[in-house]
UniProtKB/TrEMBL annotation:
CC per GO annotation: plasma membrane
GO molecular function, one term: metal ion binding
SUPFAM superfamilies registered for this protein in UniProt: DinB/YfiT-like putative metalloenzymes (SSF109854)
Domain Mycothiol-dependent maleylpyruvate isomerase metal-binding, first and last residues per copy: 15-141
Identification of the protein by name: Uncharacterized protein (TIGR03083 family)
Species assigned in the record: Humibacillus xanthopallidus
Matching Pfam families: MDMPI_N (PF11716)
Amino acid sequence: MPSGPSDPAAPPFLDHLADDSARFRTVLADAPPGLRVPTCPDWDADDLIWHLAEVQWFWGEIAAGGLTTRADVDALDGRRVERPADRAGLLEHFDRSSSRLHAALAALDPATELWMWADEHTAGYIARRQAHEAMIHRLDAELTVGARTPLDCRLAADGVDEALRIMRGYEPEPGLTHEPVAGTVTIATVDAMHAWTVTPVRITGAYEGRQIDLRRFLVDDGPDDASAAEICGTAADLDCWLWNRPAAEAITREGEAAALAAVDAVLTDSID
């Protein structure tokens, strides 16, 4: 950790993308119309199918088209399909989108440059991101119908790394300042043999022409014996926790209440 698609120790992201997308479809194919998604209360089962189909369509367009600029990506809006009116149409759209995304990414060298909102603008990172997207929404689908199955430990551990470093992480940038708001906290897996130490910080300053005031993490690999607190669980449960999904088993939290509260504050702050 951190891992990436060119790292021989990285999970097989495209295999996970295919497997979790297929499980997602199987779980929701016969779900009753109007069945609510407990982890996304504003959605029903059809909304969840539409969401992942649209996400996979979007990134499939980028990968298949070799898009590298914001202007190229903005032009995709004119090619979006209208939402199908029935379950059969939604599943057809999902099947096309999912198949095209996988095929397009499989045909590219992971180092291929593509547009991406994150700092790593590669086909490999898109594969990594979409594997995690499919896994989390597969879990949403399973929770919707009451058929939860385990998350892959290795992929989930990589998901913890991505959530901490990319979704909730921060590296110093010009024009921004950061101040620690609490002591360090060690986040440790009990099954994947990995730990991270995070420092909750408040970030202020000017970014892309606007003033920001955010809570994020500075992230280091490994535990810190001097940490003010520790959070431990399986890789799958920690990944679920970081994405505001219910853990299957207990996550333990020990240490200073202020440090633990500072971690919670980062997780409730919005992601830009």
